[in-house]
Structures are given as C-alpha cells and as structure tokens.
C-alpha cells in the first residue's frame, strides 16, 4: 500500500464531505491526513488499491460505469475494511448502498473518480 494512494482517497473524502454534507460535518469527517488514525489510513489505502486494480483489470473501461456504480464499488470496499478493522462495527459503518445518506453516496462516487484521475 502506498501512502500516496491513501492520501488521494482521504483528500477526495474530505472534498466530498465539504461539498455534499448538509450542515457542519463532524470534525472526524474532515480530519487532516496527519491526524487521521492509523486504521483509517490503512483502510483508505486498501480501498484506493482495490479501485486502482479494478480500473486496471477493466482495461480502463471502468470509466464507462455510471457514477452510482462507481460509488457502490467504493462503498462495498470500505464496508469490507470496516469488518476487517472492527469486531463489531457501528451499523452506519457497514450500511448497504440504499441505506447510505445521499452525501455519502456522492462522496464515494467522487472518490472513485479521484482514483481514476490519479492514474492518468
């Protein structure tokens, strides 16, 4: 895992939260990289790598996915990381796509697109 990829993920998350979250986000949602907990850095890096690999395995054709499909992939990868890092994660951490708030769906879609952009 590269720190660079994890940072791309985290910066895209923060940008998405700032753009889409209704009202004032919880401070932990916009914590700068240097203050992000180690487990969260590891999870961000793992999801970045999963998205990168998915894009590469598609021969670049993952760009043809809808914005929602891109977000769903990020959300599913993140859910797996929550199960990895927490024995009994909060229900909101492992909610399926239909249960996620719109701001989080938009943010996850933006993360996929940020990973795409980082590969060009």
UniProtKB/TrEMBL annotation:
<protein>
    <submittedName>
        <fullName>Uncharacterized protein</fullName>
    </submittedName>
</protein>
């Amino acid at each position: 895992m590269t720190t660079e990829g994890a940072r791309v993920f985290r910066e895209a998350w923060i940008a998405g939260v700032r753009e889409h979250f209704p009202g004032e986000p919880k401070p932990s949602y916009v914590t700068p990289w240097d203050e992000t907990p180690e487990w969260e850095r590891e999870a961000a890096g793992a999801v970045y790598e999963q998205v990168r690999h998915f894009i590469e395995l598609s021969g670049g054709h993952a760009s043809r996915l809808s914005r929602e499909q891109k977000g769903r992939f990020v959300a599913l990868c993140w859910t797996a990381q929550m199960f990895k890092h927490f024995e009994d994660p909060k229900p909101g951490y492992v909610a399926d796509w239909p249960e996620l708030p719109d701001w989080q769906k938009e943010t996850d879609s933006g993360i996929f697109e940020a990973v795409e952009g980082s590969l060009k």
